[in-house]
């Protein structure tokens, strides 16, 4: 598999070089420690680590290679990581009985990109979203877990699946909308160019309204990565990207999802 840096054009290479020179200023202005490590990579302007170039180009592409705007975005993102305590989030624990039904990472696609599944149907909105800070920290932890699976050499993006099975119009209430808007904003501001494809599956008839709402907070680049499908088209659309052996059974594949199986076992009545 070709290295990511081999795909950079000359404009991207030049912009990366310019942004790299600004790293000491970015680190200082953001308030993070000197020699800060972002996703396992040191923000060192003298670094020859190709992974740093891959990370920097994400911010540049998100700002159309405008170095000044990319600098501003990276600075704000580092400030957010400091304030949100993102660097310790992987050590935090959340109620598995609640969140295993909300989202999980399961295997990878045909290009070895990790796949994250987000489930919206049949949830107790108050239980899941009522404590907004807890939900956001859980969701960002899920994102950071996905990033741990990227090597930033040959793989630097992931696949997301948003499943609306069993979602009703009434269930998309104010609590869910607030949580959705908050997560969308955090992702757009702090995780640029990590998304390759976002599947919206089992979309209900009223889904167009939801997408119009969500789209208000998304860039055109992000929206171009959306694949929206009804229940009848789920299997074919996902098998085009994910091998059958890696696709969960619930989407027409052959793979068992341990998180969901454990939950089913817990909910089964005892035979005693």
TrEMBL record:
GO terms for molecular function: lipid binding. SUPFAM superfamilies: CRAL/TRIO domain, CRAL/TRIO N-terminal domain. Keywords: Membrane, Transport. PROSITE patterns: CRAL_TRIO (PS50191). Gene3D superfamilies: CRAL-TRIO lipid binding domain. Its main location: membrane. It is found in: Membrane. Residues 86-259 form the CRAL-TRIO domain. It comes from the Eukaryota. GO terms for cellular component: membrane. This is 10716_t:CDS:1. It comes from Cetraspora pellucida.
